[in-house]
Amino acid sequence: MSVQIDHLLHESRRFPPSPEFAASSVATESLYTDAAADRLGFWAEQARDLLHWHKPFTRTLDWTNPPFAKWFDDGELNVAYNCLDRHVLAGNGDRIALHWEGEPGDSRAISYAQLTTEVKRAANVLLGLGVRAGDRVAIYLPMIPEAVVAMLAVARIGAVHSVIFGGFSAESLRSRIDDAEAVVVITADGGYRKGRATPLKPAVDAALASGDSSVHTVLVVERTGGDVEWNERDKWWHEELAGVSDEHEAQPFPAENPLFILYTSGTTGKPKGILHTSGGYLTQVAFTHKNVFDLKPEKDVFWCTADVGWITGHSYVVYGPLANGATQVLYEGTPDTPHPGRWWEIIEKYKVSILYTAPTAIRTFMKIGRQEPQKFDLTSLRLLGSVGEPINPEAWMWYREVIGNQLTPVVDTWWQTETGAIMISALPGLTEAKPGAAQVAIPGVSIDVIGEDGEHVGHGNGGLLVVTEPWPSMLRGIWGDPERYIETYWEKFQDAPNGPLYFAGDGARLDRDGDIWLLGRVDDVMNVSGHRLSTAEIESSLVAHGVVAEAAVVGAHDDTTGQAVVAFVIIKYSQTDAASHADISAVLRAHVTLQIGAIARPREIHIVTELPKTRSGKIMRRLLRDVAEGREIGDTTTLADTSIMQIISASMR
Ligand code: 6R9
C-alpha cells in the first residue's frame, strides 16, 4: 500500500507581512539565493559571521562516512564564550540577558556581565570537582537562572550536559544518569509549580540510593528553602560558588566536541540519548534564532516559554538567544498561577516583543477565552512563533488575532530534538503566511516529501517528510548506540541516489505552491476505506468549529471500513452548557462532513475534559487508540498526568 496521505482540508487565507515589517526585516531574499547557489559556502559564511572561532575552520562538511557528519571540524571554539564573554567584550555587558520571573512573583534581572561571572565561577567549581572535557554532567533543575548557568558552565569546560526535565521521576532520572555515566548531578531543593514549593532533590536521592552509580557529587541549588536530606556526596551550589575565583579563561575546543545529550522517548522503547556537538549546532541555532525571529538584539525582548529540559529550551532559551546577545524572559512556573492571565501579565511587565510557544498552550488559552489576554497590554508583541505540533489553522488565527492584535506575523516552525534547530519555517518579513502551514525549508536546509518508493510526491500530494542533505545542527548519533541511529533515521531511504535520506517520522503534504503542511506522526495516520487520512487535518476541522477548543483524532478498528475515525474533543468553557453532548456530536459530525467530506466523518465523538499529553504537551494518540478499541491502556509513563486516562475511560462507559 502506498504512503500517499490524502489531503482534504482547504485553507486559502493568506497574510503577507505588513510593509513596515517587511521594510525592516532582518532576513533578506539573498539568504535563499545564496544558499541555493552554494549551500556549503552559505553555511560556512554563517558560521564565520555569527560565531567567534578561536581557530578558524577550513573544512565545512565531511560526509565521507554517512550518516556520520562532521561540520567545520578543523575549527575550534568555545560555546560559552560565544554566548557570554564576547558580548561583554563588545561593550554589551550591561545588557540584560535574563529577566527571570519566579512563580511566587520574585524576580531577578541578570546582565550579560553578571551571567558571565556566574558561569566562570560555576566552571571553576566543576573543574575543582575534577570534571574534565568530555565528562557528562546531569542537570535536573527547575526554570531558574542557575539552569542556564549550569548548562553554560558545563559547555565552557568542554564537558557534556544531559538536562533531565524536572517533571521526570527518580527512575527516569536514574536510567538517564546511567546511560550517560554522569559524574556530577546539579539539582535544587525544589521549585515552584502551581502555587506550591515542589521538592526535586528527593528524586535525585532516590535515583542514587543504591550507591552504585557513576555520580560522585551532587550540587544543590537553594530555591525553596525546604528541608532536604543530606548525603556525603551533596554540596550546596551557593557555598561552592562563593569559594572559587570568578576568573576563568575559556579554552577552545574542536567544533565536533560533544555539547549535550538530550533524551527523547519516542513512541516505544528505551529513551534515545540524542547527541549534539558544538560548532554546527551553535551556527544553526544562532542563524535560525536571528532570521526566523527577526531578532534585533538591542531592542527586542524575546520569550520562549519552553522548559530547558526540552530541545526547544536548549536551542531557543539558552544557545540561540545568548549566542545572539538577546534579552529574554525566563519564567519558572505554570501559565495559570496564581491567575489565568499570568503569561499576559508577564508580557505586559517586560514588554515582550517576540513570543515563542506551543499549540497546546494556545489551545488551552482558547478554551479559557479571550477575556483573559484582553485584560493586559500586549501591544509590545510584534512576532509570534509556534512549535511542537501541527498548529490548527483556527488556533493560528486566534493566536494572531487575540494575542497578536491582528497585526503580528505568526511563524510555525517545524523541527525535532534530532534536528537541533528549526528546519521548516516562514521568514516573517519575506513569506506570505498561510495559517496552519510550516511552509518552507529555511535557507540552507533541503527538505522533500516522498512516497514509500522514494519518489518526490509532487505538488498537491502527501507523503513522508525527509531531509535530503546533512545540516549543521543535525544529531551526530544516539549516545552509545550507533546501530540504533542508523536504523531509526537512515535505513529506510539508505539507497537514495544522492546518499541516504533522513527520515523524520512525520507525514507532510505539498500544496499547489509547493508549501509544506505537516500532517502528524506517520504512526498516527488512519486508513479509512483505503484512504490514508491525517490526524492533523481532521483535528483542524473540528477546532475550526466555534464550540471546540481542542481535538484529538484516532483510527479505531472497523469491520466495514478497516478503520474508522474516532474523535475526542474539549469544548470551550463558554460553550459547556450550551447543548447536550449528543447534540454537539451530531453537529460536529455534520461539520466535518461539510468541511472535509464523508470519508472523514467521525464514527464517534467523545466529549472529554482533558486529553492525554506528554510532559512537553504533545497529544498521545496511541493511548486514545487503546480506549477507542476497548483495549487495556498501554504504557502511560510518559504522560504528564497519569490519571487522565482513567477519567477518559470512565467518561466513555
Ligand atoms: C521541537 C520539538 C518533534 C516532533 C516532530 C513533529 C512535531 C514539532 C512541529 C511539529 C507539526 C510543527 N512537531 N514542531 N509538527 N508542526 N511546527 O518539538 O522537538 O520534542 O523532538 O518533537 O514534534 O511530529 O517530529 P521534539
From TrEMBL:
GO terms for molecular function: acetate-CoA ligase activity; AMP binding; ATP binding; metal ion binding. CoA binds at residues 193-196, 312, 529. Acetylated. Deacetylation by the SIR2-homolog deacetylase activates the enzyme. It is an enzyme of class 6 (ligase). It comes from the Bacteria. Its EC number is 6.2.1.1. GO terms for cellular component: cytosol. Residues 537-618 form the AMP-binding enzyme C-terminal domain. Mg(2+) binds at residues 543, 545, 548. This is Acetyl-coenzyme A synthetase. It comes from Cryobacterium lactosi. The gene is acs.
